[in-house]
Write a sequence for this structure.
């Protein structure tokens, strides 16, 4: 299969590597050229513009960071929409508002193309391991065509409904992920300020009813180890995703109280200099207010005594 | 071991059953007598007051619903504090403010007694299965004495620190549990309003980064099945627990933004008639605003296609 | 002075009337033609497009409802930017993001034109009475030119700084106005539910430290009289203005907690069917939750006894 | 009239001075004796305990800081309730939960006494000028008796309903006052960060629809002049008052979203060291996040040009 892949960032790069491994022929484009060269060494063709990439492909994939980049790559000159030919299938992996997915789909379908929105969950680690969850919106027949390619990058592939259903699903996941990180930090700061050893607190909470993936991810990997500068997902990214969620909800007449409050706390965190740090750095302003640091004190967990 | 057990509610009853099964000798007291009779049939002794129960025991356990009940049972006439003898060990399972745990501990220690605060996580189901998580505050030697008894009711027994450390830990868990239920409801309502099948949405979210125990618990067991009237944990209960959290945080100088907002949404839910329904009924006002119902439409999950 | 005026809505119409009264020569344009005819009868010229209006004028004024309309009128075909000639002065009265004001200003200045952003406060009543407050951003010399015209529509004319400073100021006022309406409703519902007569409560609050313009406006004119369907400012409008505020704050790294929460409560109100009702209808969902109605019971105020 | 006055703090002292000026005979009690001596010099009698003060009086007045002090003075040994004789009238000026007012009233009425809750608005300045607003709950005949005395300390005297109606009214005012201070700070920080001169911004806002007493009070007197350490009303006080409001609302089934969020921001401010500073210091954490200072830059207001 001849694939055009546009956007070689932290998610795009490992996805392209897995597609190359699977034997697909790739034409790649990226705003900054240096990344492209590395893939040319691995057999990919370099494309000078999104449009040039499109012309060499059966399937076009874009993996971009934000709606501005998406608009530029799709609607700019030498962009995807300009160059698309009837019958070509375009897949967008970006987490954007469903309304934008539908706008992209409309423009491509109007020119005879096909479109799937297919945001993913799992982060750079999941992309590298090809274990991403892929949430797909679009026509069933287009999903069937694309499924074998999705299986090169992920393990849970879901068809959620028409165009926009993929990004709608992703937006729901981002609400859960984003707010949960703020929540985990509120609880860890309170417990630590109350005198509980943070590592011990984590060991209990992960076995109790309040457990979550955000707790398991953020506390040991980032918070206790004070590892905020090696981000898996940055504050700026979740601010953008919560913006998608809040705007989508507003348009639909859905009240999003927690997501709105949590977004403000990420904005607080970004304003204090952590826009490019991991989302778990939302704990830093809370720690400053409380006057505590939620860090590993001993390398040892709590004294646990399990009954069996 | 001779145990006095005070408070035979939805948590206390299965705990007493497990203690009886383990061969302990129990004197039980409850405000409403009818429950006591059932245990007398199983070999427990009935006590007419908390104080009377205390006089028959080596270890005194209380399992009460709220701070008002705790104050009455400990500080009322014929209460625990009045009757406690030097050397007796008192264990309180209630989820109350750590400040109240310390107040109880102070009063008991002043009379020569010993005290542990030992709130549990796992609900009536965990209590019945003897798989509770027990979070204990108090002296290490008292913890050692009590551990074999805790092992009759739970599987994860943690010593968290001095008196108050058990309830401090529990309060952190309740923040996570309570807010997470509100959060799950926000995401499910948004996705459903956006046109995604709720059951399919759940199947994706539980495999994505936003997953949590609250999601796994609330969505299939209560929300999709519209089963709010068979509560595992009631709205009134989480309002009280978040009150504990917010008051504790205020006293410590910790900002709890999400917990405060979530508490208001549970208050909204209670005001609309759901105080005694399951905490997941916090979705009901959101559904009314959005004009959707997050229910199982088909009995079938999403079309999943896992790659491996 | 030859003026082109584009946008004859609830604010634009009384402003045009005052400009005509002051003897200015006007070319007017509006999407719906019927309004235009009325002004033609009063001596204004009809313009078939924004561009056509521009060509007949020394000064161009636009008074539009939302950013979508602004973009269409400025950047659409036959729009203002297309038609502007060097030296012409354009004044935009809309409440939009300062970033959009700067975008308009840049486009017009690039073509040799001049630009002022000049949002107003005072509503249709203030527009009719020519008592608007006008908050102006742009060059001092352009402000000097425009001042006599602003004085035809308002009494407090402020030059706030460069292009964007007018809308920045307005956005701050809209935060205050919008959130204050929610706040007044929270207080009135609580007091009424606590058993206080709402009219009596209002009489006290307007003489106490919590008094505000929103209280004086919303309680007697809309809430006590249940007059939500004769809006002075609609829910949809404040949702849009708070969106401007939140987006502006996000871009600047400013946390806006109350504005974010209040916006969600207006979204709740709009979703329940009140998008076109007065902003004070934000009380309606609160009343339903509390189970009270904050209405005039007697026509009489509280028993007041002033000492002097 | 023989008056017992208990509590000679920042509000009580000027009230006592005005009562002495009006020719009343006073027995005064205060926890710290030094303040008492000053009034003895002015002709008041010193009382060694609340109970001793009660025995010398026709009317008993208490003016205390928080519910803990109120409980101690009313229910402690040698307290008011212990010493009250049939027919004596007790007036409490404290801002407490209406539920506590009713608890005081019940205890006093049970002993044959009479009770009015009569919180005031106006602060130490209003107390000194005898221009307080007094919000009174209790029997109409008791209000009639007390009215001439209230007129010694205030100008707006309102009878709001039965016992508890005074504090219910005050609690509504405190929501408005407290939240409005946070709101004013959000708007001023946003405008300043957007580049508007803070003094100019204030001049516009006070003439626009978002104006409020909090704006008029906080901005010139505290914020622009950076005068947070000479408080008129301290952060700790508003945290307590919002606590009253939130607890009252919870008991009544009223959702208080803004008050809850605002309370957390005052808690943030207190935690950062400003518990004893003026409530307007809630701007300090916001300024730190935004990286701006909302201060008077020039001593000059904006360039205003009023049309008439």
């Amino acid at each position: 299969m001849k694939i055009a892949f546009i956007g070689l960032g932290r998610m795009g790069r490992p996805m392209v590597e897995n597609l190359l491994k699977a034997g697909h022929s790739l034409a790649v484009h990226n705003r900054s050229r240096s990344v492209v060269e590395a893939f040319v060494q691995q057999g990919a063709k370099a494309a000078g513009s999104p449009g040039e990439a499109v012309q060499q492909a059966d399937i076009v994939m874009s993996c971009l960071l934000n709606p501005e980049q998406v608009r530029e790559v799709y609607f700019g000159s030498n962009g995807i929409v300009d160059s698309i030919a009837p019958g070509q299938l375009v897949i967008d992996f970006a987490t954007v508002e469903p309304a934008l997915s539908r706008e992209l789909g409309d423009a491509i379908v109007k020119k005879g193309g096909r479109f799937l929105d297919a945001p993913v969950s799992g982060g750079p680690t999941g992309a590298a391991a090809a274990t991403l969850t892929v949430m797909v919106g679009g026509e069933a027949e287009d999903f069937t065509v694309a499924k074998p390619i999705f299986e090169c990058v992920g393990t849970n592939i879901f068809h959620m409904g028409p165009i926009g259903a993929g990004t709608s699903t992703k937006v729901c996941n981002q609400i859960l992920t984003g707010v949960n990180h703020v929540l985990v930090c509120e609880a860890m700061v309170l417990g630590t300020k109350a005198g509980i050893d943070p590592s011990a607190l984590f060991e209990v909470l992960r076995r109790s009813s309040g457990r979550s993936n955000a707790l398991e991810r953020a506390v040991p990997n980032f918070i206790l180890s004070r590892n905020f500068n090696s981000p898996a997902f940055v504050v700026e990214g979740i601010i953008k995703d919560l913006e998608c969620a809040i705007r989508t909800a507003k348009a639909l007449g859905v009240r999003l109280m927690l997501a709105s409050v949590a977004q403000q706390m990420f904005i607080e965190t970004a304003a204090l200099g952590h826009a490019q740090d991991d989302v778990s750095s939302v704990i830093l302003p809370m720690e400053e207010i409380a006057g505590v640091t939620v860090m590993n004190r001993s390398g040892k967990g709590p004294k646990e005594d399990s009954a069996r």
DSSP finds 14 helices and ten strands in chain C. Residues 2-162 of chain C form a domain with the Rossmann fold fold (CATH 3.40.50.720).
